[in-house]
Design goal:
Layout lengths: L1 E5 L10 H14 L3 E6 L19 E5 L2 E5 L10 H21 L7 E6 L5 H11 L2 E6 L3 H7 L6 H17 L2 E4 L2 H9 L7 E3 L17 H5 L7 E6 L9 H9 L6 E6 L5 H8 L5 E4 L7 H7 L2 E4 L14 H6 L3 E5 L5 H6 L4 E3 L4 H12 L2 H18 L2 H17 L22
Parallel strand pairs: 1-2, 1-5, 2-4, 5-6, 6-7, 7-8, 9-10, 9-12, 10-11, 12-13, 13-14
Antiparallel strand pairs: 3-4
Length: 428
């Protein structure tokens, strides 16, 4: 099949949605599909375009059997409120003509990745004009999260944004998302049940696996061999609620047998470093390259996954898959009844969001009990092998995509459907 993937984030971004989108595209290409991607230059989570890429020029490249078209965008250093909207809109506008040029190629499926919903209308339009299956994959419910986290404010803005979101979601032939609770949100927003697909995030369990030795990073970071390492790795943004972990680290500064490692980039990194970066029990390091990811995840004796209370079930943290696959104990912050709680609680420790004292108690309890850490880590690894492996998740997705593209009944046949344009391949 000819598959056009459309989303703002893509490799070589090392974390978040870009990594999953790139892995999905490469997997589809390896399965024999002709895959093209329209995306932005890599900028996340540092909110700075990576060296070797341009924020102002169009570019094309090939990687892992995938053709990649990059459209420019504006990247704010402080991605809040209106600046974030302008950032997203800049990509939606610059990428639209690139997307239209692929009409002559006549894709059979157009996969739009959200965030960002602002570019999803163009993905839907190109699918309609080319007669392709219009598929929207929702990694985050960005509209709900933006208002709940205070990034956007105003009741009339919220009503307009939610109305736009509902209208858009219902137009797509298929809407997939990454957890059962997020599927419920799609249904509550008016998407028909027969259009909704569960497409979970995954992990390469052969690349991420428990080591039978200490991680080399422990010595590189000058962490005492006998110390227990508490690790956070990933985006340092508003949704994570990382101030709680920084406060816990500061409260445990006298515990020289506990070392907190913060690995990542993002808008709140400077504030976090100000809170605890100079403490002897803290280390701040940049995101590690993919060939060091397993060493990084095995640096942890305890992974911590903080989350703000108002982000529950609007996002499912993508970093959790690697934590579980590494075979190390996990502490997650989630309320009972949320998807994160149900995923972690049988094989890890769950504490309420933003509950600093409870988090400190959980860290100290696990630090004092290596046998329990080993037991929880083993349970997490077994779950990753059974339910989160790259082969099983992407294999099932590819089969579902084939079936839905082959079945005309899964494509909308409403009044909005437009005829395919008669373009030639040389028009690209």
């Amino acid at each position: 099949m000819k598959i056009l993937v459309y989303g703002i984030n893509y490799a070589p971004e090392l974390t978040g949605i870009g990594r999953y989108t790139a892995d999905m595209a490469a997997s589809l290409a390896a399965a024999g599909h002709d895959v093209r991607v329209v995306c932005a230059p890599p900028y996340y989570p540092a909110w700075q375009v990576s060296k070797g890429f341009s924020s102002s020029r169009y570019a094309t490249e090939q990687s892992d059997g995938v053709g990649i078209w990059r459209a420019p965008l504006w990247v704010p250093s402080r991605p809040k409120g209106a600046r974030r909207l302008v950032h997203l809109a800049s990509f939606a506008l610059s990428s639209f003509p690139v997307l239209l040029r692929h009409l002559a190629w006549r894709p059979q499926a157009v996969l739009s990745i959200a965030p960002s919903l602002l570019n999803a209308p163009a993905g839907w339009l190109v699918a309609r004009l080319s007669g392709a299956h219009a598929w929207l994959h929702v990694q985050d419910y960005e509209v709900d999260a933006a208002f709940k986290l205070g990034m956007l404010k105003g009741s009339w803005k919220k009503k307009m944004a939610l109305a736009f979101e509902r209208h858009l979601l219902r137009r797509f032939d298929t809407v997939s998302t990454i957890s059962a609770k997020m599927i419920e949100h799609a249904l509550n927003k008016g998407v028909r049940r027969d259009k909704v697909v569960h497409f979970a995030n995954w992990v390469d369990t052969s690349a991420i696996h428990p080591l039978d030795r200490r991680s080399q990073l422990k010595a590189e970071l000058k962490i005492p061999a006998e110390a227990t390492v508490v690790l956070y790795s990933g985006n340092m943004g508003a949704k994570q609620g990382l101030e709680v972990l920084a406060t816990a680290a500061a409260s445990l500064a006298e515990r020289r047998d506990l070392v907190f490692v913060f690995c990542g980039e993002g808008p709140v990194k400077v504030a976090l470093h100000a809170m605890c970066g100079e403490l002897p029990n803290c280390r701040f390091i940049p995101l590690q390259p993919m060939d060091k990811l397993n060493e990084l995840l095995n640096l942890a004796d305890i992974h911590v996954l903080p989350q703000r209370v108002d982000a529950a079930d609007l996002v499912m943290p993508s970093k959790l898959t690697g934590m579980l696959a590494s075979g190390r104990a996990v502490i997650a912050m989630a309320h009972e009844g949320t998807e994160l709680f149900h995923t972690v609680s049988p094989r890890g420790v769950v504490v309420p969001p933003e509950a600093i004292e409870t988090l400190i108690e959980a860290i100290e309890s696990l630090a004092a009990d290596p046998a329990r850490r080993e037991r929880l880590g083993r349970a997490g690894r077994e779950f990753a092998l059974a339910a989160l492996s790259r082969e099983s998740v992407l294999g099932e997705f590819e089969s579902t995509l084939r079936a839905r593209c082959a079945d005309p009944g899964t494509q909308s046949n409403d009044a909005e459907r437009a005829p395919a344009l008669d373009l030639q391949e040389h028009d690209l």
